Amino acid sequence: MPVAEIKYEDLVFDPAVQQMCVTPKFTCPHYGHSWACPPEAPYLKEELAKYKKFYIVYFGVNLDDYVSTQRKDHPGWSENSIRNSVYFGKMLQEGYETELTTFLVTYNAPYSEKWVFWCGGSCALCENPKDGGCTHDAGHQCRHPDEMRYSMEAVGIMVNETVKKTGIEIEWPPVHWTYRIGLVCFK
Asked: Positive or negative, the Cα torsion across 163, 108, 93, 68?
């Protein structure tokens, strides 16, 4: 199972990470439009210090193998099209969610609370026909405050620097491997 235990001291926090969402290089459309994103998302360095166990859970896709397989299935597609995350993003997300679920189901050490963080993106719990999207812009409270999905970046964690401490090398931009990564914390 792709899981790496990490110590609290190895989580790299920086409040400036929360501002990356509005820099020209990383502008995110969710900034200021989701309860789980900055500026609403809290900086959690002190809160997470109260937790005891930390695990990086991840799912990786070998892009070289993926490109080779997709070329057979879609001979007219360019390599840039094949490498576009629009096409492999769902597979990456589903693979990650499978790994995360497996980890959470098999984790048998006692704990009083857990917190799960995603890497990148915004909480999507309400992105369904029933809920119709996040309540933030309508000025209403979050429908699911106990299930809200913060990203690691949203709470001030430097993902690349933190993940490197587990031995996982993230390529930016992804050339040979791409990952979906999360952090699970147990109190």
From this structure: positive
